[in-house]
Amino acid sequence: MAVPVDWFYATGSGACHILTLSGIHLETASIGIVTAPAVKDGIRKVWVGTEGGDLITIDAANATILETVSFGGTVAYTGCHGPNVVVGMQDGRLFAVDAQTGVIRWSTQGTAQVVSAVETMDVLLVNYSSGSSRSTAFDAYSGSILWQAPYNADSASADNGVFYLTNLANLLEARRATDGSVIWNRTEPNFNYVGATAVGDVVYATTEDWKLYALNASNGV
Predict the structure, then answer these.
(1) Whole-model pTM?
(2) pLDDT tens for residues 125-165?
(3) With left for phi above 0 and alpha for psi between -120 and 50, is residue 141 left, alpha or beta?
(4) Domains and CATH numbers, the chain
């Protein structure tokens, strides 16, 4: 059964909250949830992580807990990307869990905490909390490292086989998902880019001076 399209999921006070446009509000008990809810289209589940190191699988329509898996430590990040539920631990461990079956596809030990991830064409790009780490692209199914950027992205978005990355050196660039090659880049002379979102043929980028740019996704113009 697909997840209802007008349902919304949020974390607060250690619980997972389910809300609808019609006003229904359900929630789990307060169980130490600390990550944002991860939801995947077509699967009636929500995944959240706890301070105690558990990945909690919740029924997306009634807030009942379906499964609890303990990883130890603290879960710092959960997100659904491609075929996986991505679980990032505070100590740098990273797990890719099959969203359909709940089986761990692969895992790796990173050098810092995962703070974000994006996916396109079965390539998963992971960004870390430490500036000394480098954004890393993994094969979503095997976990093999495909390439690394020469920096750790401050934000990233993905669409149509391309990653769009920003960093705190006033840089925005497009990199091909398969091999990390740079398609185009542009620098902002006075202010950092603070975010980028790719939607089809357009990349929307914001800067620290409160400007919004709409850029051609193919060439950055």
Answers:
(1) 0.92
(2) 999 998 789 999 999 999 999 999 999 999 999 999 999 99
(3) alpha
(4) 1-81+97-109 (2.40.128.630)
